[in-house]
RNA polymerase sigma factor (Sulfoacidibacillus ferrooxidans), 172 residues
Amino acid sequence: MTGDDELLITLVRQAQLGEESAFAKLVTLRHRHAYQTAYAIVRSSHDAEEVTQDAFIKAFRKLHTLKDPSAFLAWLTTIVTRLAIDHVRTKKRHIAEPIENIADVPARAIDPTLRTILEEALDQLTPAHRAILILRERDGYDYAEIARMLNIPIGTVKSRLAYAKQSLRNLL
């Protein structure tokens, strides 16, 4: 266990005991991850910030239900992912922003033309397929973790991931 993991566990436990400053530190530590996850699904910085705020509010209210403090990041990612998918479903129209507009996201060494093509292809995936692709390929969660996060069977995770990858191949 790393020092960061131990700090996170300590902060979760303190926050569960009612220390609001501990929860504020959790928000500071994990805001970027939550925002990037939300953005990957909703494709708008404004909407991603809204989803991120809603996720932290929900996490604050439900923190007492988290039994294993070491599972905080996966638990928070689940909340963000579900809220982001719901947000896209309820929003009739969303406009994607290029990834370069995301604050504090390091630029990757990738051809700008290829980046634009990839962004456009990702925009054409459904929020559910985009979420699974991001959780698996960017965040590195395994099938069982994604299934738990999204409350769907592992087989559904595998089929949606395969469909998302095939759709990307076809679009690219």
